[in-house]
Specification:
- This protein is mainly alpha-helical and about 220 residues long.
- It has 2 domains: about 15-60 and about 75-125, no CATH class; about 140-215, no CATH class.
- Helices cover about 50% and strands about 10% of the residues.
- The protein contains 9 helices and 5 strands; from the N terminus they run αααβααβααβααββ.
- The strands form 2 sheets. A 3-stranded antiparallel β-sheet has the order 3-4-5. The protein has a two-stranded antiparallel ribbon with strand order 1-2.
- A hairpin with a 2-residue loop joins strand 4 and strand 5.
- The longest helix is centred in the first third of the chain and has 15 residues, at about 20-35.
- The radius of gyration is 22 Å and the shape is elongated.
- Belongs to the ropporin family.
- It is found in: Cell projection, Cilium, Flagellum.
Amino acid sequence: MPLPDTMFCAQQIKIPPELPDILKQFTKAAIRTQPHDVLQWSAGYFSALSKGDPLPVKDRVEMPVATQKIDTGLTPGLLKVLHKQLSPKGHVTLAELETKWKHLCLPMEQLRALLRLDNFGDELEWMKVLALGCSALGGSLVSAMKHACEILTTDPEGGPARIPFDTFSFLYSYLAIVDGEIPESEVEAFLHALKGAAVQKQFTLVNPHNPCEWKSV
């Protein structure tokens, strides 16, 4: 005989006091991040939450690019999430990077394509991976640096997007090497000119509509 349905009364059901807030924050995070695979992203979200790690959550909803018909790849917001999660260690394992990448529902082939641009092993320098990600977003060295400044800056959103000169120099030099078409002497001359003009050794765009113009601020 089938067992009778169990009956519960309100007094028997105990809801953990922290559950409503957890679910509320989770829902808001999912709406902001807009994951393509909610279950996969949720696994990463609650795994990070249980460990006290940075959550795979965008700062805000990203509007799709007008020319992007299918939004399934890396975006500035997702790259910024990865930076928050992986930058504290400086170096990350390939397995850890792949896990975080997967939790953000990003195509694994896109990650493999990025990593093929350098001779990475099982341990990777995160800032180099970030630089390659910015390059994939920008399509050119100047555009890549613009994305890097916007991701790395501590300025409020919409501000000058300043970053330290040493960080700018490292990323610019690395991407120039990966590009392979910019003479080393030209890279050194450009960075020397910037450093010589620096006041606080931080840099921003002179004109947000012309990313070729940089200045120290």
